[in-house]
Amino acid sequence: MLDHHIQRTIVYTLAFSEGMRFSDLKPDDLENKAFNYHLKKVIAAGYVAKTDEGLYTLTSEGRRVGKGALKKQNRMIDRAYSTLLLAVQRSEDGAWLLYRRRTHPMIGLTGFMHAQPSAERDAAQVAADVLRNQTGLTGEFVVHGHGYFRVYRAGSLESFTHFTLLRCTETQGALTQNSELAEYYWDTDPDFSAPDMLPNMQILHKMSQARPGQFVECTFDI
Fold first, then answer.
1. How far apart are CA 6 and CA 26, in angstroms?
2. Other C-beta atoms within 10 Å of 42: how many?
3. What sign does the dihedral 161-89-182-141 (CA atoms) show?
4. How far apart, in whole angstroms, are the C-alpha atoms of residue 197 and residue 139?
5. Nearest to residue 89, comparing CAs of 166, 146, 164?
6. Domains in the chain, start-ordered, CATH in brackets?
7. CB 116 within 8 A of CB 194
8. Residue 51 CB partners (closer than 8 Å, separation 6+)
9. What are the backbone dihedrals phi and psi of residue 136, each rounded to the nearest 5 degrees, phi first?
10. Residue 38 contacts by C-beta under 8 Å, 6 or more apart in sequence?
11. How does 148-164 read in b/e, with b if 16+ C-beta sit within 10 Å?
12. DSSP string, the chain
């Protein structure tokens, strides 16, 4: 558990970086001794490690918490994280809407955009709202499939998700960049097997082209 707001801030900050030095990670208004105490705590808890180059970086367990450290303090990281995956394809040229991650887990990799399910709205409405808020585009979604993904890195669990895949084949508006956490773009001929794609993209693309209602459960090693 991350017991203190400084510890949660350390994990959150590192979620946006491949590694940081002590001087860059420490807030200017915090004494070295106090910050070092909390840094040692998150290292001992297994969320952060120090590399041979002197950089502090998230471990696999830390990456699974990632930017959720500030708002999901009680999240159990060994339980599946529920998410909506949005497969958006432009009708006029077949281009896919993709996004490149700017945070852990799996920073720098590309995939379909995602959304957090809500108890107050159905999945299709949540997907449409997130599409509009994050990209400026509008469109209607239908639920297409669901399943579980487990991703391991060097033998350690990196992410465990229960996903619902939604499809949208008609969009209106011009693409805008409204998020600091991701870079969105259209791609008319994506290689879903490319090394910079998320490991689940081949499966998701295949699901999106098949009949609705499919269930998959896959494990990936990266």
1. 10
2. 27
3. negative
4. 24
5. 166
6. 5-69 (1.10.10.10), 81-221 (3.90.79.10)
7. no
8. 19, 57
9. 80, 0
10. 4, 6, 7, 10
11. ebbbbbeeebbbbbebb
12. ---SHHHHHHHHHHTT-S-B-HHHHS-TTS-HHHHHHHHHHHHHTTSEEE-TTS-EEE-HHHHHHGGGGTT-TT--TTSPEEEEEEEEB-TTT-PEEEEEE-SSSSTT-EE-EEE---SSS-HHHHHHHHHHHHHS-EE--EEEEEEEEEEEETTEEEEEEEEEEEEE--EES------SSEEEEEESS--TTSTTB-TTHHHHHHHHHS-SSEEEEEEEE-
Closest to 149 (Cα-Cα) out of 200, 114, 196: 200
List, for residues 94-124, the tens digit of each pLDDT value: 999 999 998 877 889 999 999 999 989 999 9
User: pLDDT tier at 60 (50, 70, 90 boundaries)?
Assistant: confident
Which two tokens mark 77? 């990281």
What's the chain's length in residues? 222
What tens digit of pLDDT does each residue of 113-158 get? 999 999 899 999 999 999 999 999 999 999 999 999 998 888 888 7
